[in-house]
Amino acid sequence: MNKRITFRSMAHSDLIQDHANKQLAKIEEFLLNEPTPIYIDLVLEPSKVHAHNKVELRVKSPHYELYSTHEGPDFYATLDHVIDVMYRDLHEEKQKEVDMRKQRGRHKKKKKQR
Q1: pTM for the complete prediction?
Q2: How far apart are the C-alpha atoms of 36 and 45, rounded to whole Å?
Q3: Cis before residue 37, ω within 30 degrees of 0?
């Protein structure tokens, strides 16, 4: 699993990086049984004009290619929001995949009965 945290237009902060790693642990745990390669890119960028900070998160694997972004005044709250949205999106995509797998299985059984 390749994980990268990028601080764009700002100095590196160990506190924010530690918080991001703790939050990303949920997504890493979810993706443990996925086939490799898995890429997780987190970009943290402060706004130069407004009091809004931008956080972007990209997850790319053989089954998923998702992107989440959010802007807000607090880096920690914005980071938490982006990771929660990504976690929910990953669950929704996995459920869609499981539903499609189940649906394909039902059609094969019905064809055999006919």
Answers
A1: 0.80
A2: 28
A3: yes
Query: What CA–CA distance (Å, rounded) separates 79 from 7?
Result: 13
The pairing of strands 39-46 and 2-7 is: parallel
* pLDDT over threshold 60, residue 21: yes
Whether the predicted pLDDT of 43 surpasses 90? yes
Cα gap 50→105, rounded to integer Å: 52
Q: Where are the beta strands (DSSP E) in the chain?
A: 2-7, 39-46, 53-60, 65-72
**Residue 111 is which amino acid?**
K
Tokens of 19: 């918080």
Nearest one of 43, 46, 38 to 17, comparing CA atoms: 43
